[in-house]
Design a protein that fits this description.
This protein is mainly β. It is about 5% helix and about 55% strand.
Length: about 160
C-alpha cells in the first residue's frame, strides 16, 4: 500500500459533519466490506460485497459503495448501490429513526443531503414517502420528488393521536 492510501484510509475514521444526532459527528466512520479498491487517479475508494458503513446512529448498507474524496482527501459523498441499498439515522433524541432505501443512494455528509434513486423510500414513525427519485435535505428539512413519466409519488401520513 502506498503512504497516500494509508493516509486516506485513516481519514475515513475522522468524523465528518452530519445532520444526524450531534454526537454522531464526533464518532469515527467505519466501513466494512468483502473487498476494497482504491483509485488514486479518481480519488475514490470502492467497497465491494456486503458493505456496511457506520457513524454513530447513522448506518448505510449496500452491495457496493464508492466513496469519492475531495481535494483535501475528506469524504465528498458516498454512492451506495443495492437491491436495495439502505440508510438509517436518528435526527433527534427520543424520535424514531429515519429509514431510507433505494437502488442507489447518494449521501453527502457535509451538507446532510440524501438522494434516493430508483425505488426511493423513506419512513419515519409510520409515515412513508415513495418515489422514483427523492432528494432529502436534512439541513433544510425538505423532501423533493423529481418528476417521472412512468412512476408516481406516494405519501402516507399517519393520523395524529390526540392526548386525553
Amino acid at each position: 500500500m502506498t503512504r497516500k492510501l494509508l493516509r486516506i484510509l485513516c481519514l475515513l475514521y475522522v468524523p465528518c459533519a452530519s445532520f444526524a444526532l450531534s454526537s454522531d459527528a464526533t464518532q469515527q466512520i467505519k466501513i466494512t466490506s468483502n473487498s476494497v479498491e482504491y483509485n488514486q487517479h479518481l480519488n475514490t475508494i470502492t467497497y465491494i460485497g456486503n458493505v456496511v458503513a457506520n457513524q454513530g446512529t447513522t448506518k448505510v448498507t449496500a452491495e457496493t459503495a464508492i466513496v469519492t474524496l475531495n481535494k483535501t482527501n475528506h469524504i465528498d459523498h458516498l454512492t451506495a448501490q443495492g437491491k436495495p441499498a439502505t440508510y438509517s439515522t436518528i435526527l433527534k433524541e427520543q424520535q424514531p429513526p429515519i429509514l431510507a432505501s433505494g437502488e442507489t443512494i447518494k449521501y453527502f455528509p457535509a451538507t446532510g443531503r440524501l438522494e434516493l434513486i430508483k425505488k426511493g423510500h423513506i419512513t419515519q414513525n409510520g409515515n412513508t414517502f415513495d418515489a422514483p427519485y427523492i432528494v432529502y435535505d436534512m439541513q433544510k428539512q425538505t423532501l423533493i420528488s423529481k418528476p417521472s413519466s412512468h412512476e408516481r409519488t406516494t405519501i402516507v401520513l399517519q393520523p395524529q393521536h390526540s392526548v386525553k
